[in-house]
Predict the structure of Ribosomal RNA large subunit methyltransferase E.
Amino acid sequence: GYRSRASFKLLEINQRDRLLQPGATVVDLGAAPGGWSQVASTIVGPRGRVLAVDLLEMALLPGVEFILGDFGDAAVLEQMLGLLPDGADLVMSDMAPNLSGVRDVDQPAALHLAELALDFAGRVLKPRGALLVKCFEGAGSQALRVEFARHFEQVLVRKPDASRDRSREHYLIGRGMLPITP
Ligand code: SAM
């Protein structure tokens, strides 16, 4: 069985958009308790790799390399970059802040995590790679889409059935990294 209901969101998105491929190198940001990593490691298989990170400890999964730490921490970022000398085919982030319930606090925190994922993707994605990021509709979410459009040939918005009870939650997909001219 899967460790989290989140697995079904990734399965549904992947069924439509085919982000996960056998042999692929996948980065799972905010991976605990491991539902997405389970799905990813099954699909990438023994020739692929899954590199996962979370603030919280996660029970071992076969075929998944796990780093315990804050993805916003420069040392954690450097460690991950060091483990990806050939880059990644897919960066996926289901990271979410600890919700305080105060939208003016939670929304910027969530956007910041999405931006960290976008910056990281710019550093590790292969040219045909893809980025999948959890987002919340609200202040700044339109600007984030515009930012995605600056970085990717194609930007898609997905709201899997398993997210329907979480009204503001959705996922952005970027495919085909564009060279950025500052
Ligand atoms: N996709 C996961 C699954 O399928 O099991 C569920 C992820 S859960 C919705 C969000 C996770 O993001 C939490 O485990 C949380 O600890 C993690 N997270 C939030 N901020 C983080 C950060 N700065 N660095 C690493 N992980 C973070």
Remarks:
- The pocket of S-adenosylmethionine is lined by residues 3-4, 6-7, 30-36, 53-56, 70-72, 94-97, 113 (CB under 6 Å).
